[in-house]
Design a protein that fits this description.
The chain is an all-alpha fold and about 200 residues long. About 60% of the residues lie in helices and about 5% in strands. The chain has nine helices and two strands, in the order αβααααβαααα. A two-stranded parallel ribbon has the order 1-2. The protein starts with about 20 loop residues before the first helix and ends with a helix.
């Protein structure tokens, strides 16, 4: 019989019809990697130092919805431990709650630069702003990213994806990753973009 040509092999990393959508792939991967942190408080043996007291105070302020106060308290904690990743994330969460999104977006980038392993970390609800504050932040980020020139840029898209992950909102995650893809070289898939931004460029 006549030999039939073999179907072309997909390029490495190319998606096939069997692949799940990119945002669902990201969700599945992040869940496999996930670790959880339930408190900003330092370990018991550190409880007497200024850093530990400030982190505990900041957590209490977050839970009370005192986001501006929490932002200041996390900043004080960072004076004792500059670039401490957990304090950086805490301050970012407080800034989201306070509506300080330029600072929050830059702070999230700084936190991942300080500790890329945070990509696999999920913070418990008491360590986050409320869902209503997250929704308000997302609305502002969307409006900014729709502009030809946005002060938030890729940092804002990263923040949207981060909030999508923590609040289990696939649409936020997907839109944030798409925003990242538009601001990075076209050859990267959404998943590769996330990794490149989290682990290499930051």
């Amino acid at each position: 019989g006549v030999l039939q040509p073999e179907p072309p092999k997909p390029e490495p990393g190319a998606r096939t019809n069997e692949d799940p959508p990119p945002d669902e792939t990201v969700f599945q991967t992040l869940r496999r990697m996930e670790s959880r942190i339930s408190t900003f408080k330092a370990r018991p043996e550190q409880a007497g130092d200024a850093y530990a007291r400030r982190m505990a105070d900041a957590e209490a302020q977050m839970k009370a919805g005192e986001y501006f106060n929490a932002e200041g308290t996390f900043s004080l904690a960072l004076l004792g431990k500059p670039r401490d990743p957990i304090a950086l994330v805490g301050r970012t969460h407080a800034q989201i709650g306070a509506g300080l999104l330029l600072s929050a977006a830059a702070g999230l980038r700084e936190a991942f630069a300080s500790a890329p392993e945070l990509i696999g970390t999920r913070f418990e609800p008491g360590m986050l702003p409320t869902f209503a504050r997250a929704e308000a932040a997302i609305a502002t980020i969307k409006a900014e990213l729709a502009k030809p020139e946005s002060a938030l840029g890729a940092d804002g898209a990263l923040l949207m994806a981060y909030l999508g992950r923590h609040f289990d909102q696939p649409a936020w995650l997907s839109e944030g990753l798409a925003g990242l893809a538009r601001r990075t070289p076209a050859e990267y898939s959404l998943f590769q973009t996330l990794w490149v931004l989290f682990k290499s460029r930051f």
